[in-house]
Amino acid sequence: MGDDNYFLLIEFIEKYNLNFDKFEYDKHFESEGDFIGFKNLVLGLLKLPVLIINSLIIKYFSITLYIRIDNFFFDRTNEKKDLTFGDLILSKLKWEFCLRDECRVQLAK
Fold it and tell me: How many structural domains comprise the chain?
């Protein structure tokens, strides 16, 4: 169910016969096991009342003061690199894995 990105990537690589030896899956995608583990389940259940109260307080003050208050319980850090369709298209043009930030393509006249 959660491996759609993996199967899409494998199908893309096989269809266009690309060299993805340099590609490191873990740098771009989270493991499902990290989200569903027992420890995260228990911690999530313990945090739930605090998160609900926090969101209600933020909503109340945001409406009352007419300003947006950031939810400090929500962790927005993401150590994963983005992999976009632009990166896949560039990889197709170069015939090997390449991120747009790291490669250049020169169009012929």
Answer: 1
